[in-house]
Amino acid sequence: MERDAVDGVLLDCPWVPVCISGSQLLAKTWFGDTAYRILLTDLHSVWEEEMDTRAIQDRAQELNRRLRAPVHAFFSHMCEVAHPCLSGRVEDGGALQFSLNHHGGDINLKLKSELAGVPFYWEFRCTPAPVALVCSQLVRPLLLMSRLLQRQVGQLGALLARKDTELQDYRDNGAVLSRERLQTELFEEQSYRENFLTQTVPQVCARQGGLGFDSELQELYSAVTSYGNTNARKRKISERHAPEEDETTTEDRDPNHAASGTQPPGEEVNHGLDQGDRDRTTDSETPNEEKTTVPMATAADRPSARPKKKKAKGLFG
């Protein structure tokens, strides 16, 4: 699969919270037939690794000296044991050993399992991700999610205001609550916003250690990135077709190209003339054609004038 295609597939995968060796991380992974892509972040740094078939084969030989199987023979096993841990579905432990180590600016995930009764080792060696990748996979989607949530809050506030108006109309017409505990105060957006900033924000920030990318945020992230991927694919398709359309349009608009491509040699091309102009042009050109025909006929009669010259010679003689 091409790099752009892998980036697109990875973008559709949501960030999920994982815990490896006591470290809280957000991860997103993509496993192909014999290739994978992994992204990890602790919200201080972002790391990535991308491996194809050849690279996986070389690393497997490096870590498992006795391994002689082709990639497809052991890659499915690696996916079965690693993917659940990197998707937040299973905590590491038991027969599977998953550990995390920092090496300078890099991060290594070491995996130990059993394959056909023999220990199988693997390492995900992640290096710092480029800024462009961080922006496309994390920053831009999160900013778009923030704008969407802000709009949702505005729409909910407007809905509450309409509900308050509706309830007030019921009261004005004599409606009474059967249970007093259901009584609510009128919704005031400004006071609600102030209370939210002073009370809710500190509570959320205090629990930020858990990263808090829950299932609802994952669903929103997937919706945002899926829509962005669809638009990106449409733009690429239109960009591929744009040069062909421009070339066709240029050929259609170029009179020289049209004349050279369709008009036989020696014929004149008249552009922009209507039927009346063509008739007038034909009428004006007719006398010239007759004048041209007369000299040509005189020139053709010259052989019949030669006997006259012979008579002249006889007179001089």
Give structural notes.
With 317 residues, the protein is of the alpha+beta class. Among the domains are: 3-129, Dna Repair Protein Xrcc4, Chain: A, domain 1, CATH 2.170.210.10; 138-177 and 186-233. Helices cover 58% and strands 17% of the residues. It contains 9 helices and 7 strands, in the order αββββααβββαααααα. It has helices spanning 3-12, 53-63, 71-86, 131-172, 189-206, 215-253, 255-262, 275-300, 302-316; strands at residues 16-20, 23-31, 36-41, 46-51, 97-103, 106-115, 118-128. Strands 1-2-3-4-7-6-5 form a 7-stranded antiparallel β-sheet, sandwiched between helices. Helix 4 packs across helix 6. The protein is elongated, with a radius of gyration of 41 Å. The termini are far apart.
CATH fold-type name of the domain at 3-129: Dna Repair Protein Xrcc4, Chain: A, domain 1
CATH architecture of the domain at 3-129: Beta Complex
Number of DSSP strand runs:
7
The spatial strand order of the largest sheet comes to 1-2-3-4-7-6-5
Uncertain segments of ≥5 residues (pLDDT<50)? 257-273, 284-301, 310-317
CA-atom Rg in angstroms: 41 Å
Biased composition (Basic residues): 305-317
GO cellular component, one term: DNA ligase IV complex
InterPro entries: NHEJ_factor, XLF-like_CC, XLF-like_N, XRCC4-like_N_sf
GO molecular function, one term: DNA end binding
